[in-house]
Predict the structure.
Amino acid sequence: MNFENLKISISAGNVPEVRANVEALLKTGTEPLEILNSGLITAMEEIGEKFKRNEVYVPEVLMAARAMKEGVSILKPLLSADQLGTKGCIVIGTVKGDLHDIGKNIVTMMLEGAGFKVIDLGVDVPPEKFLSAVIEHKADLVAISALLTTTMPSMKTTVGVLREKGLPNLKIMVGGAPVTKEFAEEIRADGFSEEAGSAVDIAKKLISGSNQEV
Ligand code: B12
C-alpha cells in the first residue's frame, strides 16, 4: 500500500488533501490501523525528525499536526480504544505560575502523532493536579513544561510531589527553554529534552524500558 500522497499532504499541512487521501485508502480496503501507523504516525515522525534538524519550523509543525489530527478524526470511530492508545498514556502540563504553552502544545502534538494517548492539563498546573491526573488515567509518564526561570522551582516541587507518592512505574520527563540536563538530574526527573522531536524518542524509551534518559 502506498502512503506517499498521504504523507505529502500531512507535511504540507493540507487538511482537505489529508481527508481525501485517508478516505481513498479506506475505499481501497486498507485497514484503519495501518493508515494510522504507516501513514499518519510515520508522517508526523518524519516531521519530528526534520524539526530536530531545523529543516522545518514551529508553524510547519503546527500545520502538519493539525492536518494529522483531521486524519485521526476520520479513523477514530473505526479504531478500538486499545488501538488508539497502544503506546501508553502521558499526562502533560505547564507548571504552576507559568502560562507559556506553545512549546508544550507542540510536544503534545508530536506525542499524539507518535501514537501515545495524551492528557493535556493546560497551563498553571499545580502539583496536586498532576498527581490526581496521573492516578485517574493510570499514566505511564508525566511530561512537565516550564518556560520561566521563576517557575523552575515549581517544576522541582511537582517532581517531588509525584516521587513522594511512590508510584513505581511512573516516569517523569521535563523540558522548556530554561530547563537543562543538569537541572533535570538535580530534581530527579527520568528524562529531559530540549525540543519536541527528541521528546518523542525519550518518551518511547522511558515507557518501553526503565532506563534513565537524563
Ligand atoms: C510567547 C511568549 C509569551 C506568551 C505566551 C503565550 C503562550 N500561549 O505560550 C505571553 C505573552 C503570555 C508571555 C508572558 C510572559 N513571558 Co514570555 N515569552 C514568550 C516567548 C516570546 C516565546 C516562547 C515560545 O513559545 N517559544 C516557542 C516554543 C516552540 O519554544 P519552547 O516553549 O522553548 O518549547 C520547545 C522546547 O523548550 C521544548 N519543550 C517545551 N516544553 C517542554 C516540555 C517537555 C516535557 C519537553 C520534553 C520539552 C519541552 O519543546 C518545544 C518545541 O521544541 C519567549 C521568548 C523566546 N523567544 O523564547 C518569552 C519568555 C519565555 N517570556 C518571558 C517572560 C519574562 C514572560 C513574562 C514574565 C513577561 C511579563 N513581564 O509579564 C510573562 C509570564 C506569564 C506567565 N505567568 O507565564 C521570558 C522568560 C525569562 C526567563 N528566563 O525566565 C522570555 C524568555 C522572554 C525574555 N527574553 O525575556 N510570554
